[in-house]
Amino acid sequence: MFTNNNQIFAAPLAGITDKPFRKVIRQFAPDVSLVTEMISCHSLVGGHKNCIRNFDNYDDEGNIGAQIFGAEPELMGMAAKILQDAGAKWIDINMGCPVPKVATRAGAGAFLMKDHALAGRIIESCVKSVTIPVSVKTRLGWDEAHKDWQDLVRVAAESGASFATIHGRTRAQGYLGQSVLPIKPDLPIPIIANGDIKSIQDIERVQKLGYDGAMIGRGMLGQPWIFGQICGLCDKPENIGNVVLQHLDFMVEYYGAKVAIPMFRKHVAWYSSGRPNAAQFRIKVNQITDESELRKIIKDFWSID
Q1: Mind listing the pLDDT tens digit for each residue in 246-287?
Q2: Where are the beta strands (DSSP E) in 125-162?
Q3: Where are the domains of the chain?
Q4: What DSSP assignment string belongs to 14-59?
Q5: Is the pLDDT of residue 104 over 70?
Q6: What is the β-pairing status of strands 213-216 and 8-10?
Q7: Where do runs of H (alpha helix) occur along 138-256?
């Protein structure tokens, strides 16, 4: 097992790893490395008020990287500086998102696996704009015929990146099929493994492959304590319902009840997965718009007085 908790990362997941969810993770694992949801450089630099995470402060979040995406080097550098000033400990550049509106229409995310020259200019701009480390998160390649991630990592290193994260699927795979990570080749910067890592056994597997750290993504859904378990800091909570209610508290505090309640439904579904009568419970939750009613049904489901 990796001996340093900072070698264990919580992946950036759009719509999930917001500030409330990160606060829950921190209750169980104070030192693991967290990464924000991806943030648009255009939205951040433009100060768009409809995106609340544009105004997050990271001073109290420990070892946290802020992930940005975009296709314009100058704007990406400006965004990196804003996030450094907000307290981010490093900047992560998204070069792996396969969603069409990012990877094709915006020419960002996974598209940068097709344009290594542009990727290098973006990295250089960010590195020159900040004094904190800059990393990249990418995939094996655009598709099965173009698995050239090692070339992109070398470009990243030459452009000043401090480390990279590799997800064991191509852009064409999306999130389907099995994540398959190759034995780590000899590369100039540390490489963090990502993709279908959900247990200590998975972490031991990627460590044997030679990787320098492990990043957990979907494996944390409904079990934010997994990082504490892996690091030997805690066991699974005796009553998950207390964690659910605390998470709801953080959501309401951050977004306000009107926005938080519908957003929280997906988390309730993940927390309740595998429990008796979970399907019926989720149906009820999806019809609730009142905060007090939601708290009551959560308490009833998890038998909290």
Answers
A1: 999 999 999 999 999 999 999 999 999 999 999 999 999 999
A2: 134-139
A3: 5-230, 240-301
A4: TTTSSHHHHHHHHHH-TTSEEEPPPEEHHHHHTT-TT-GGGG---T
A5: no
A6: parallel
A7: 149-158, 200-208, 226-230, 240-255
Tokens matching residue 218: 């979907």
Question: pLDDT for 31-51, tens place per residue?
Answer: 999 999 999 999 999 999 989
CATH code of the domain made up of 240-301? 1.10.1200
Neighbours of 178 (CB within 10 A): 9
Q: Is the pLDDT of residue 223 over 70?
A: yes
Annotated active-site positions, please? Answer: 97
Tokens of 138: 């990418």
DSSP secondary structure letter of residue 277: T
**Coil, strand or helix: which one is 214?**
strand
Is residue 140 within 8 A of residue 174, CB to CB? The reply is no
Short-list 105, 83, 78, 73, CA closest to 12: 83
E-strand ranges in the chain read: 8-10, 33-35, 39-40, 64-69, 90-95, 134-139, 163-167, 191-194, 213-216
5-230: CATH class: alpha beta
pLDDT tens track for 145-177: 899 999 999 999 999 999 999 999 999 998 888
Rounded CA separation 174/147 (Å): 14
- SS3 of the chain: helix, strand, coil, percent, to 5: 45, 15, 45
Contacts (Cβ under 8 Å, ≥6 apart) of 208? none
